Q: What sequence folds into this?
């Protein structure tokens, strides 16, 4: 049941068509935005989820003086919140001792012995290292040795191993330092790795998921509303153009048939199209 | 996109404009949410690097943590038990030194000659009181938290550390007071002296048992009725001569009664003369602060006595264990003895009330190191 050409070409009908098309573009864009936001939100919670641990390492060798001991500066263990896991490794597989002690005790232990001091973070994954002062070794001419720290009464926690040793600790209240050594006479472990738990936050995930969901819902509502108004608009435009004289009630059924066909072609079998059978009553 | 939307509704002048306008607003809002959310996600990774956070210093703090303390007690007990069982003083070395080692070595020597000689009092058992040293954090007076790190000089100045512990071994009458000393950071705690508590002795409490006791300089009388070293020296003088001017500063005690009774007994015998000299070892005097502001002091005395036979033909019959150590049952001319005496004194704080509080001996022990009969 084709419409007469003059009716289709009337300015009112064309305007109504243009407007209908623009509305659908808006719906599609909104749906796209919603999908992208949802996707980003899901990705942040899954594939982009950061590691729940963060590690930083310090390499202690390389200075003029070979350190016998490695200590952390005050507060380094507490650089990040939470318990810290410390691992010291010796490349030659020799004995490794890790102890936790009060600042006073650790400093007293290291007195006169070439000691490397591990400082704060210089990047996300590496710690500052202050090599032992040349004077410390010069005075002792290599004879200065602290002895094996593993057997001392000073420490609250001790870990020993061959090649590497690991100490998991929650620094107690006060100033506590970590001391790493081999056996007190050989060179200190070469690498110290501090690992903290990382609080994994996804601050954008919830807004993205909610926003994305809302955008999709909005697109759905917009599509429903738009489909209805555009049909009404079109019918009115057709009526104005004289295709349906007077718009008398008897002609209603014919028009509806036509409108449905039009909608189908534009919406491509959208699932809500049949639901509009009730439009007649609410109009 | 957001710009384009209003034009849709502006153009629709001839039809109802109710629909598109709120929708356009909604669209714009949805886009804004998406943009803000995206921006927030983008910013999340760019935080400044966290810096080290030195904690507040709590001073003073106990230098020996509880679990370490019980480990040390166990090792002391094991070393002493092993040495006592073997009669070998070399086994004491890991955890016992000083006069405590001397005393046990003398006991072992005696038991090698005389098998039924009394065994030395065992160390260990239940810990009745543990007075661990409290170390102040250098630069942290009055609750301040020093920003700077502790210097090596400040740290080493917290040594030597003195730890008093009172233990009650099973089947022993008197609890033993042991003095453990850590002379420097790289040495372990070793028992330097042990002394049995006297009957009825009351050991004054320390300030805060969970915090430990502050160290007291043995040579300083600051805040005390007597400096710890002076207290030991004057108590030695009192033991030797009850009429000495220092005697008034000391309350009566069971050990002094015993020593003086022996002296009186010897004086009552006409045919020999007894000369006793007591020499304190000032470097071994250790002291910790007590709750009342006084100090608990442990010191070691070398007591040398010479008995000279003054009557022609008289002979000194030697009691055990003197005879065993001297290697003969009698002394026709002279008997020389060297005893080691360990004393524990409670020194009161100095106060201006005019009522001078007396020093009270709470523990004392003596052991014969050497005897020579001529």
A:
């Amino acid at each position: 049941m084709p419409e007469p050409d003059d009716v289709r070409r009337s300015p009112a009908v064309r305007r109504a068509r243009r407007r209908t098309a623009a509305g659908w573009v808006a719906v599609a864009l909104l749906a796209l935005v919603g999908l992208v936001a949802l996707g980003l939100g899901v990705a942040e919670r899954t594939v982009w989820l950061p590691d729940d641990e963060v590690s930083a390492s310090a390499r202690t060798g390389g200075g003029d003086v070979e350190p016998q001991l490695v200590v952390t500066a005050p507060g380094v263990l507490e650089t990040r919140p939470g318990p810290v896991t410390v691992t010291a490794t010796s490349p030659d597989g020799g004995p490794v001792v890790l102890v936790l002690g009060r600042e006073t005790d650790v400093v007293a232990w290291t007195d006169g012995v070439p000691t490397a001091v591990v400082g704060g973070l210089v990047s996300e994954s590496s710690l500052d290292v202050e090599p032992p002062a040349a004077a410390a070794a010069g005075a002792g001419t290599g004879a200065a040795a602290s002895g094996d720290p593993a057997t001392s009464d000073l420490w609250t926690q001790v870990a020993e191993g061959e090649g590497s040793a690991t100490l998991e600790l929650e620094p107690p209240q006060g100033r506590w330092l970590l001391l790493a050594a081999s056996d007190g006479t050989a060179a200190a472990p070469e690498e110290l790795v501090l690992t903290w738990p990382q609080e994994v936050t996804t601050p954008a995930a919830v807004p993205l998921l909610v926003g994305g969901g809302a955008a999709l819902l909005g697109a759905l509502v917009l599509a429903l509303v738009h489909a209805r108004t555009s049909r009404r608009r079109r019918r009115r435009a057709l009526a104005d153009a004289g295709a349906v004289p007077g718009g008398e009630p008897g002609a209603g059924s014919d028009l509806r048939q036509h409108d449905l066909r039009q909608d189908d072609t534009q919406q491509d079998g959208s699932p809500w199209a049949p639901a509009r059978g009730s439009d007649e009553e609410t109009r | 996109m957001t710009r384009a939307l209003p034009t849709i509704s502006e153009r629709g002048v001839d039809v109802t404009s109710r629909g598109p306008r709120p929708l356009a607003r909604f669209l714009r809002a949805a886009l804004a949410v998406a943009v803000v959310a995206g921006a927030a996600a983008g910013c999340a990774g760019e935080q400044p690097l966290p810096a080290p956070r030195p904690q507040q210093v709590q001073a003073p703090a106990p230098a020996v943590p509880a679990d370490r303390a019980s480990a040390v007690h166990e090792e002391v007990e094991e070393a002493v038990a092993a040495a006592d069982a073997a009669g070998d003083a070399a086994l004491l070395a890991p955890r016992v030194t000083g006069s405590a080692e001397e005393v046990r070595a003398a006991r072992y020597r005696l038991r090698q000659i005389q098998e039924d000689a009394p065994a030395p009092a065992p160390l260990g058992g239940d810990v009745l009181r543990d007075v661990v040293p409290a170390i102040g954090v250098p630069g942290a007076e009055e609750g301040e938290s020093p920003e700077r790190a502790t210097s090596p000089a400040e740290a080493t100045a917290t040594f030597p550390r003195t730890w008093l512990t009172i233990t009650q071994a099973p089947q022993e009458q008197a609890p033993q007071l042991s003095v453990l000393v850590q002379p420097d950071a790289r040495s372990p705690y070793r028992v330097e002296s042990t002394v049995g508590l006297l009957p009825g002795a009351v050991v004054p409490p320390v300030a805060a048992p969970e915090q430990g006791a502050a160290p007291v300089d043995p040579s300083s009388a600051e805040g005390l009725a007597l400096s710890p070293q002076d207290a030991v020296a004057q108590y030695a003088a009192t033991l030797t001569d009850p009429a000495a001017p220092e005697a008034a500063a000391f309350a009566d005690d069971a050990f002094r009664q015993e020593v003086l009774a022996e002296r009186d007994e010897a004086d009552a015998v006409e045919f020999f003369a007894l000369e006793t000299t007591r020499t304190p070892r000032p470097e071994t005097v250790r002291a910790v602060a007590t709750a009342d502001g006084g100090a608990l002091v442990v010191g070691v005395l070398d007591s040398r006595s010479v008995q000279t036979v003054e009557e022609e033909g008289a002979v000194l019959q030697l009691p055990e264990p003197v005879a065993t150590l001297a290697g003969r049952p009698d002394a026709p001319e002279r008997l020389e003895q060297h005893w080691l005496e360990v004393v524990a004194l409670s020194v009161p704080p100095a106060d201006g009330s005019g009522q001078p509080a007396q020093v009270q001996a709470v523990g004392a022990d003596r052991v014969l190191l050497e005897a020579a009969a001529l």
